[in-house]
Design a protein that fits this description.
The complex is a heterodimer.
Chain A: H1 9-15, H2 22-39, H3 74-78, E1 84-85, E2 88-89
Antiparallel strand pairs in A: 1-2
Chain B: H1 7-15, H2 21-39, E1 42-45, H3 47-55, E2 67-71, H4 99-106, E3 110-115, H5 149-157, E4 163-167, H6 173-179, E5 182-185, E6 205-210, H7 213-223, E7 253-257, H8 267-282, E8 286-290, H9 298-313, H10 332-343, H11 346-359, H12 364-385, E9 391-395, H13 411-416, H14 422-427, E10 430-438, E11 449-456, H15 461-475
Parallel strand pairs in B: 2-3, 2-4, 7-8, 7-9
Antiparallel strand pairs in B: 1-3, 4-6, 5-6, 5-10, 9-11, 10-11
Helix pairs in contact in B: 2-3, 5-6, 7-15, 9-11, 9-12
Classes of the chains: A mainly alpha, B alpha/beta.
Chain lengths: ~100, ~475
């Protein structure tokens, strides 16, 4: 694992769509470095014999018959909208 | 108190009309009024609606007239849902019932209240709830465990007949251990998660938290089974769990993993578990030493996989369709960034950032792919052990309940306390914690519960409950 690097908290938080305060950035940098240092112990585990297909094992994925069912009602879907306009979610202008 | 009787007893009283479902609900309501201000288990309850449902309760059904408390991560139609987070509190009303709620209702049960939890089920003490403090009923200066701390505390405090919790890395079993109750994490795929807010989708399960193994069997019977609305829910038939509770443990092969009795275990926890082992051997169980050599890698593996999945699952909280939206966003990106920053608490942000990092370009192979491969080795450890034994036994947690604030400044120390519970989620097993003793009281510290954990292979809940029931009997 790339132990020589420190996590760039501001950059990763941006990817995660989170604005952080400078204090949060400093706290998370310390804490996440400590956690990543701990996680690096996995470097010592030999996985050379583990096949790639195991990445999907253990999950179950069952499909149901393709039968139409009543959808969620419009009012129910909009019930928790932070802002709405008629039958639509209201969001800031996207095209600048 | 009436409602602290076993569910089987309550059912007899209900079907013989000695009590009514409304009597039972009022008993729960008055106990909450008396004690929950000190405990803080409940986030909300709706007794008027529950009493109306009680009037119509079908007493012929297996849980007819039994009120059940629900961890506030599970949707109950028309009720607020918070997940212990500011991002949802006061801003979200469930538009439908989760499958487990539909099934509880079909079994005659009455969901009446929602229970506190670590925010989005991320935590081991319920200290990460953004909404209120929940205290351990056995010692109010200590945490109830987490993340299903409210569900455990309500049962332990006698303010619920039984509750539902969720378990992603131990979040049913650890609070059950800390509060001195029974908590069962079903196998991956045994219980539908439809309507349960997702934290880590390859690990999450819903399960019962109760006063006895028999009560846990009754609740699991009601909620288990295939669900067309959850493609990860297995189609295997559901056995009669109560029929498995014979009490006869002769010939049952119990594995004692060397790694679960090593350094770091509190001497009183060790002594209580050792005593239970002796009693089980005396009752006719066969004991076998086994090894789970990758146990030491489980926490590191978990905190890569769980946070990766969490970072994806919690992307849905974006301030657009539901939940908190920041004031006066400059543009769409500002709306996302500030709504999430204002709504999520510190532990959730920490895990989202970690999960985003381990999935990001250039790091995926080093972290996520590697962790999935180690997860395979952890599964193999259990598969080899279960070739020789029927169940595994050890402590649920290395220590009894800890004090508030003991681990809040160092999240890694909090994570390390989940050493015995986390591997079962990675391997998809079922597991159960039941009380096996308590610490010796000292001046200023009352006796604290100690939990014993049993693990069984995937879909082995009948064996798990059989072993747990026999253990419960042996300890009496």
């Amino acid at each position: 694992m790339p132990q020589e690097e420190h996590i760039n908290v501001r950059y990763v938080a941006g990817l995660a769509r989170l604005t952080l305060t400078p204090e949060e950035e400093a706290t998370y940098a310390t804490q996440l470095d400590s956690i990543l240092h701990y996680v690096a112990q996995l470097d010592n585990v030999d996985v050379s014999q583990v096949p790639e297909h195991t990445l999907e094992e253990g999950g179950c994925d069952f499909t149901r018959p393709d039968i139409a069912r009543a959808p969620q009602s419009l009012e129910s879907a909009l019930l928790n909208a932070p802002r709405r306009s008629g039958d639509q979610f209201l969001v800031p202008k996207v095209v600048e | 108190m009436l409602h602290t009787q076993p569910i089987a007893t309550l059912r007899q009283l209900l079907t013989s009309r000695e009590i009514s479902p409304a009597d039972l609900l009022r008993s729960v309501e008055s106990s909450i009024a008396e004690t929950d201000s000190a405990i803080g288990a409940y986030l909300q309850r709706d007794f008027p609606t529950a009493l109306a449902e009680a009037e119509k309760a079908d007493l012929t059904q297996p849980l007819g007239g039994i009120p059940i408390g629900i961890k506030d991560i599970i949707n109950v139609n028309g009720q607020p849902l918070t997940c212990g987070s500011k991002i949802l509190a006061g801003k979200f009303t469930s538009p439908y019932d989760a499958t487990v709620i539909t099934r509880l209702r079909a079994a005659g049960a009455i969901p009446f209240g929602k229970l506190n939890m670590d925010e989005f089920a991320m935590g081991s003490s319920t200290e990460n709830s953004a909404l209120q403090v929940t205290r351990n009923p056995r010692d109010l200066t200590r945490v109830p465990g987490g993340s299903s701390g409210g569900s455990a505390a309500a049962v332990a405090a006698g303010t619920a007949v039984a509750t539902l919790g969720t378990d992603t890395g131990g979040s049913i079993r650890q609070p059950a251990s800390f509060c001195g109750i029974v908590g069962l994490k079903p196998s991956y795929g045994r219980v539908s998660r439809y309507g349960c807010t997702a934290y880590a989708s390859s690990l999450d399960q819903i399960g019962p938290m109760t006063r006895s193994v028999a009560d846990a069997a009754l609740l699991l019977q009601a909620i288990a089974g295939p669900d067309p609305a959850d493609s990860t829910c297995r189609r295997d038939p559901v056995p009669d769990f109560s029929a498995a509770l014979t009490g006869d443990i002769k010939g049952l092969r119990i594995g004692l993993p060397d790694e679960y009795f090593g350094e770091g275990i509190d001497p009183e926890v060790r002594a209580a578990v050792d005593r239970a082992i002796q009693l089980l051997e005396g009752a006719g169980a066969e004991l076998h030493r086994v090894s789970l050599p990758h146990t030491g890698s489980a926490i590191a593996t978990y905190y890569i996989i769980a946070t990766a999945e969490a970072s994806a699952n919690l992307a849905r909280f974006d301030g657009i369709r539901y939940g908190h939206r920041c004031e006066n966003p400059e543009n769409l990106l500002d709306l996302y960034n500030r709504s999430r920053a204002e709504g999520f608490g510190p532990e959730v942000k920490r895990r989202i950032i970690l999960g985003t990092y381990v999935l990001s370009s250039g790091y995926y192979d080093a972290y996520y792919r590697k962790a999935q491969k180690v997860r395979h080795l952890i599964r193999q450890d259990f598969a080899r052990a279960f070739e020789k034994v029927d169940v595994l036994l050890g402590p649920t947690c290395p220590t009894p309940a800890f004090k508030f604030g003991a681990h809040t400044s160092d999240p890694l120390q909090m994570y390390l306390a989940d050493i015995y519970t986390i591997a079962a989620n990675l391997a998809g097993l079922c597991g159960l914690s039941l009380p096996c003793g308590q610490t010796v009281p000292t001046p200023g510290t009352p006796a604290l519960p100690i939990g014993l954990q049993l693990l069984a292979p995937a879909l082995g809940e009948a064996t798990l409950l059989h072993a747990a029931h026999a253990t419960e009997q042996a300890l009496r």
